Protein: Alpha-amylase family protein
Organism: Microbacterium helvum
Amino acid sequence: MKITDTSDLWFKSAIVYCLDVETFFDSDGDGSGDLQGLAQRIDYLAQLGVTCLWLMPFSPTPDRDDGYDITDYYGVDPRLGTHGDFVEVIRTARDRGMRVIVDLVVNHTSDRHPWFRKARRSIHSPYRDFYIWRDDAPPKGQKNPVFPGEADGVWTRDEVAGQWYQHSFYEHQPDLNIANPAVRDELARVIGFWLQLGVSGFRVDAVPFLLEMPPGAEVRDPHELLRDFRRFLQRRSSEAVLLGEVNLPYEQQIAYFGGDEVNELTMQFDFVGMQAFYLSLARHDPAPLVEALTSRPALPPDVQWANFLRNHDELTLDKLTDAEREEVFEAFAPDERQRVYGRGITRRLPPMLGDPRRIRMAYSLMFTLPGTPVLFYGEEIGMGENIDAPGRSAVRTPMQWTADKNGGFSVAPPSRLVARPPADGYAPEHVNAATQIEDRESLLHFFRDLASRYRISPELGWGRFEVIDQPAGAVLVHSLRADVGRTVAVHNFDEVPATTRFSLEDEPDGTCLVDLLGAERIPLDARKRVELEVAGYGYRWLRVSRPGDGRVS
């Protein structure tokens, strides 16, 4: 790769920041965040080092599933603003060097969507086949695999329609019939509409569910839908990406990139690596994470993994064994109320890990893993969850801007807020952006430092991953190597300090290691070896500086 390649495949060295407009900043005092409020906070995100905003759903919605129950794919929820406000956000973000991607939720609609309302009125309606129906009652005792305990089965009888409709999620979210060409045409128009307004791609929700075809569908290959999306996307915007939510084992995820053709999703979240990461944290042993990362299939240069530690859903642990999941539960969610669906945790990372050193080590490692880092709003200041909110809502609290009432999110009375901030040690008076901006030692400044060093080290997003042998069992030493250079990362998973020794035998004479998060230059000895003391939960970013490599730091 050349350094100029990073502008073509921009997503490989991006820093993605996910936020919900509704909970980010309220500009008009009605208790709900809005697009004008987001525009006022663009400079904060630019200073943080964000290069790509991922906006969760902001379309019109009954809001029974945090906006994922959509009634108009072309609209903006009036509570949040207008199309004009949205375009201003895009324009302002672009001016500050940020692209914007938006959620594409097309596996289902709200049951209040005009399509479904027309579909249920008559079996002869052209919209009837937009959804999936059956005449006979489904077998008794069916469970809902997505929301066990919250939703009953995946079929609900509609009395007006006189049939049962399928819903993989909640019963108020009927599944779209993707096998219907008319549905696919509508979804292409939705993609084209938002591209025309300036977005740089889409985060595609629940992709495996999207490709599930109804019984009897005459579709030779469901993946052709993703290929159609990708072809259409590239025709309309050569830079646009599809970031897919595909919670499957690695060997199955490859098909969603398009296999050898690489013509489907541009990026996929690494759920396997994320879950192995928490198992490694619980054990104070990097081995599970190393096993996951070394089993990742090799990818062509124009697609990418997306790394994350937390998102807007439960922290799912479904890819761990029952025994492994219980280890993580005991370490990070000892109270049954902190668990959901038998597979997930409803906490944010800082309350789970506790030790500030461990929190910083975790995020340092995420930024140095092969792939693109994805942050969930509030992570940069160490926000906690609202323990009084049920289920996944616990982590969907308002952004904490100041120590003032409502955390500076809104001037509305607390009773009118879309969600309540925490009231414990993670309340806004203890955790907020304004205080941390003034504190050079704060977590916020730590994130700014990570982002700035990451952005000048393209090998972190592009490089080939290598585990470096060394004797300390709790320490992970790995490198990422690309044509532009090489960086070695050192992370201690234990609270006990450790000594690590390793060799870089293939480096030329005169090579040294430059500490990117400090000021130290560490020479290799005559045998290309180095010995380092690593603090408890310590971390180092070490750029391999070869003679005459030309890089400033």
About this structure: The first helix runs from residue 5 to 8. The two ends are 20 Å apart (CA to CA). The chain has a mean pLDDT of 96.
